[in-house]
What does this fold into?
Amino acid sequence: MTAPTQVSPVPPADLPGTLGALRAAGHHYRTVKQEIRDNLLARMRSGEERFPGIVGYQDTVLPEVERALLAGHDMVLLGERGQGKTRLIRSLGALLDEWTPVIPGSVLNEHPMHPLTPAARALVAERGDELPIGWLHRSMRYGEKLATPDTSVGDLIGDVDPIRIAQGRTLGDPETIHFGLVPRTNRGIFAVNELPDLAERIQVALLNVLEERDIQVRGYQLRLPLDLLLVASANPEDYTNRGRIITPLKDRFGAEIRTHYPVDLELELALIRQEADLVAEVPEHVLEVLARFARAVRESPSVDPRSGVSARFAIAAAETVAAAALRRAGLLAAPAAGGAAPGAGDSVVRLEAPVARVGDAVSVTSTLRGKVEFESGEEGREIEILAHLLRTATAETFRGRLAGLDLSGFTALVAEGEVIETGELVSSAELLRQVGTVPGLAKVLDRLGLGDAPSPEEAAAGIEFVLEGLHLTRRLGKDVTDAGRTVYGGRD
It folds into this structure.
């Protein structure tokens, strides 16, 4: 895998077109690390955001990354899955100059003021200031490889091209080499994801790239001073315990930076809001339940801590809950068997708007269990464990959001043996009809951030949350019917 953007943008017409014009414009050659250092310092001085889209690392990881970049260090990011390592690595490309000059046709992206190969040096000497130059966008200066056991030295570094040998070139001629991903990212940033998965003999091939900045192919050495920033990611267990990264390679990284999951609930919520692609409205209290749920799963002794629980767990949970709300809205709009569609010939029929409720979160315990690695003794209890943790998260959110409110109006709804039915396919209108006017409902909806004039669907979401919270705090009874409806009533 190479750069995410494969089609280079068209350079502006006012950029210099020859080496002479480039010199006249006052351009000076800088290494990649100097370029990144200068641009990072410029962003610091201007107050511009340095790493857009990175949540939760402002006071922990990012200062370490900035120190490594300012020092000109290659770095390895250590962290469990779903901690944003790849997102952070890819964001480094924004610190490169938007456009950089290159010798046209050079597979090594050679700078016209700093040619590397004999052919490029000869071309510059021959054409001088009349040498045409091209411009490379920073999106094309990022290369990435997911390390897999079948990765070869040829993939990363290069190999001898037998066709060129057959054409008469000698074995020592650099023109006989088909360069791999690392040299082709010269004057850019190259990332190796999951570095421990590279075979040890492949890791050896990176030693010279990291320290001496040259490459060796098929027994002969090319003195090509590669100019790149090498960044790798790894799981801490693989990196430190299994010995799957050779010691000399670890020693050549200038910085080892530990990543982490969001340190507090607000950061977990901010990450969900930023990343989740929601197809329906998900109220804040439901998002908080899911954020607390993800954190509870992460901290559970039943879950293998070495694998971690990805931030994608909470994101996928929010998307699943939104989809459940959209499904409810779609099914409630469907005509009954043999009947007309709602609203046909009757303009006053109101369709259900998709708004998620806390009851919709139940579905995530089955659909997301594959994202969690449980301890070996918990086989067969996965859904039971997740369901318990979801209930705990709901109760914590209920206490945190509605503590101190008088909720006796809700418990009074079932005081005379009455029951309230809700569920996945119970419409908001039906739920509101059962509840009627409840003392204290306005304060509840205000605490939940649903505003002074919530829609019927938002009000129903708030009411269902209160009912579930009262059940979890042992003030209401609850039963689930064979039809899948949830029935709240008095405690026996």
About this structure: DSSP finds 21 helices and 14 strands in the chain. The radius of gyration is 30 Å.
